[in-house]
Amino acid sequence: MASTTLHPLFSIITVTYNAAATVQRTLDSVAAQSCSLYEHLIIDGASTDGTLDIVNQAMQRNPLISLLSEPDKGLYDAMNKGIGLAKGDYFIFLNAGDKFHSADTLQTIADTILDNDYPGIVYGQTDIVDDNGTFLKPRHLTAPRRLSVKSFADGMVVCHQAFVVLRRVAGYYDLKYRYSADYEWCIRCLLRSRRNSYIDGIIIDYLAEGLTTANHRASLMERFKIMSRYYGFWPTLARHIKFFIRNAKRKN
Asked: Where are any strands of DSSP class E within 88-215?
């Protein structure tokens, strides 16, 4: 395998802003991985709390961490900065508070990549955790065993953090989308990917109350526009009507 100092297999990109309460868990999770074929890029939005102190301390213990801290135009702008700096073959977006499910998760992803001759996308399941990293519940959408661009017509069926993308099929995030650029980005990646490999198990513990969760209504409206763009307005409208009817029946 290639040397991590020259050409890492993974670029793990963590976006932070005033994340002193949660970033340590993410740093510890990455540092604990049995696989060291990665670089860990911290893209910080000029935090004013203790975030930078925590990251700088972690950098002294883990030479695979690097830090960029400067003002940005939001989450997806920061993610684009990470892509621009990344040197790895695959991108993993692990934001402050998120963590790998176990110490051998990254090795499992690496083995899947090598066993399947570098697929365009590797993905798996996600658990939801609280601010203390305690398990709350499985993610409400289950990642399918077979994934294609059509799968995302039903929504973001794979959590962004559990969606590992080969560099050559990944572009930049479209900043005209404020809340759901990750959903649109995943669709574009799927359009470019010829082979996708499924990991049968939990690979990411995702912190609840992310940007999309906190702006749920605006995110849904934006996501509807994205769905209409890629899957057609009328099929998207029909699909949403079915969702509403099904949810209404569940409540009754």
From this structure: 90-93, 99-100, 121-129, 135-138, 163-166, 196-207
- Coil, strand, or helix at residue 90? strand
Chain position carrying tokens 């995030």: 173
Q: How many CA atoms lie within 13 A of 130 on its CB side?
A: 5
Tokens of 30: 């990455």
User: pLDDT value at position 247?
Assistant: 61
Degrees to nearest 5, angle at CA 100 with 98 and 102: 140
User: 190 by DSSP, 3-state: which?
Assistant: helix
The residue count of the chain comes to 252
Q: Which amino acid is at 79?
A: M
User: Is 216 within 8 Å of 175 (Cβ atoms)?
Assistant: no
Instruction: Residue 43: name the closest of 113, 91, 8, 101 by CA.
Output: 91
Per-block average pLDDT, block size 10, for the chain (252 residues)? 61 97 96 97 97 98 97 97 97 96 98 97 96 88 96 95 97 96 97 97 87 70 95 91 67 54
> How many Å apart are CA 118 and CA 88, to the nearest integer?
13
User: Whose CA is closest to 75, among 203, 183, 230, 227?
Assistant: 183
Q: Which of 152, 188, 153 is nearest to 170 (CA)?
A: 188
Please, are residues 200 and 152 in contact by the beta-carbon 8 Å criterion?
no
CA nearest neighbour of 65 among 29, 105, 19: 29
Contacts of 34 (CB under 8 A, 6+ apart): 103, 104, 106, 107
Put simply, whether the predicted model's pTM sits higher than 0.85 gets the answer yes
How many other C-beta atoms are found inside a 10 Å radius of the C-beta of residue 150? Answer: 11
